[in-house]
Amino acid sequence: MTTRILMVCLGNICRSPMAAAVLDNRAREAGIDVLVSSAGTASWHAGEGPNHMSFRVWTDAGYEYQHVAQQFKQMMFDEFDLILVMDQSNFTNVNALARNHEDVAKIRYLRSFDPNLKVDQIDPSAGALLEVPDPWEQPREEFEEVLKMIEQSVDGLLAFLVHGD
């Protein structure tokens, strides 16, 4: 059975498409049946491709992925099993669109799967520790740091999908 996962950030041009690229590639390599997409809580970049630096960083790391930005919509709760946000703002914005407890239960921080973090993602004070910082308009090194965070989190996510831990 395919697990449907949506990565969410603000503009859907830096973090969430990078996370989708990593998950899409690593899941295929591992033989794990995942459908992945991404969205942004804002509509500023809808219809655009990824941020050029984000794209360069993920392609230089060996990931292949095509992306067109879209805005998060309430109907996406019906289309996805997990909605993984990058920061507190995304968490708050996506939660505000949730219609019921089932929708809320689908929302998690991507970094809640990072095996190097030992933070209870339900604890509201943990949000800042679970953030993937926005590298927009930052130097390449910031995008590379974001990629490392995403890769660690995706490793944990894939283990969760296989083992349920």
Report on the architecture of this protein.
The chain has 165 residues and is of the alpha/beta class. The protein has one domain: 3-Layer(aba) Sandwich (Rossmann fold). It is 41% helix and 13% strand. It contains six helices and four strands; from the N terminus they run βαβααβααβα. The protein has helices at residues 15-30, 52-60, 76-79, 88-97, 101-105, 140-163; strands at residues 3-9, 34-40, 82-85, 107-109. The protein has a four-stranded parallel beta sheet with strand order 2-1-3-4, sandwiched between helices. α1 (15-30) links the parallel β1 and β2 (34-40). α2 crosses α6 (140-163). The longest helix is centred in the C-terminal third of the chain and has 24 residues, at 140-163. The two termini are 18 Å apart.
- Beta content comes to 5-15%
Strand count, sense and barrel status of the largest sheet are:
4 strands, parallel
What is the average per-residue confidence, as pLDDT, rounded to a whole number? 94
Q: What's the total helix number?
A: 6
CATH-derived topology? Rossmann fold
Q: Percent helix among the residues?
A: 40-55%
Q: Write out the CATH superfamily name.
A: Response regulator
State the low-pLDDT regions, or none.
none
How far apart the termini lie comes to 18 Å
CATH class: Alpha Beta
Question: Biggest sheet: strands side by side, in what order?
Answer: 2-1-3-4
Provide the CATH architecture: 3-Layer(aba) Sandwich
The number of E-state strands comes to: 4
What string, H for helix and E for strand, traces the elements in order?
EHEHHEHHEH
The best one-word shape is: globular
Structural class: alpha/beta
Domains counted in the coordinates: how many? 1
What is the CA-atom radius of gyration, in angstroms? 14 Å
